Amino acid sequence: MRIRRLTLAAGDLEGQAAFWGGRLGLPVSWDEDAIEVRLRDSTIRFERAAPGLDARYHFAINVPADSIEAAVAWLRERCEVLAFDGDPVRSDVGAGCVYFLDAAGNVVELIASPQIEGEDGPFGPGSLIEIGEVGIASDDPPATVAAVEAAFDEGVFWRDPGSELTAVGDHHAVVIVAPTGRGWIPVGLEARPLPAEILAYDDRRFA
After folding, report:
1. Among 192, 95, 184, CA closest to 137
2. Which of 48, 87, 135, 175 holds its CA 20 to 30 A away from the CA of 8?
3. What is the CA radius of gyration of the chain?
4. 66-125, pLDDT tens digit by residue?
């Protein structure tokens, strides 16, 4: 599964443009009342949120295998890195992961999975390859999991009863379904149903 474009709501587009373009150095373009942030193989589109909507999500970006320490060092020069159990790197899921908040308060994760190949050289904006995860909340997780499976013709990649999370997809990208009210690690951001559209590379989508 490969996510071509992820569309999310954001209250402060100017702040998001400054963060993703100015701080992280990624290509950012404006499109009417939205901005698009270009990763190497995916696009994140932030559309202006409706007045009063507190739109904060969890999503993750794949980076090359074995690059997580370089990713942490690169991030620390540009923003605060969030601790996971007192450590900047999470390594208990078969990959190296590091978390940070963007200008909108989204919990963003960089994932260095052994299955993801990348270009050699110093870590930089070009090392942010593609959308690897997006979390969505539901009042009826089993029905939402079934809808995501049908939309993308993908099965459950993993299910963690202890955390109440279910991931649909594969090692390149997953949609993680959480029950409403569960906290996204590592800051406990409450998972809430929010507007989002996920477009796969063969134009299958879930909104």
Report:
1. 192
2. 87
3. 16
4. 999 999 999 999 999 999 888 888 877 778 999 999 999 999 999 999 888 777 789 999
pLDDT for the residue numbered 161: 86
Q: How far apart are CA 170 and CA 148, in angstroms?
A: 13
Structure tokens at 59: 């999503």
The Cα–Cα gap between 125 and 74 comes to 9
Of the CA atoms within 13 Å of residue 21, those in its CB half-sphere come to 15
Distance between CA 195 and CA 163 in Å, rounded?
23
pLDDT on residue 90 = 84
Is the peptide bond prior to 186 cis by the omega test (within 30 degrees of 0)? yes
Sequence-ordered strand ranges (E) for the chain: 3-10, 28-30, 34-38, 43-48, 58-63, 81-82, 96-101, 107-112, 130-138, 156-160, 165-169, 174-179, 183-184, 189-190, 196-200, 205-206
Query: Alpha-carbon distance 50 to 170, whole Å?
Result: 33
Report CA torsion sign: 206, 181, 132, 40.
Answer: positive
Q: Residue type for 92, please?
A: D
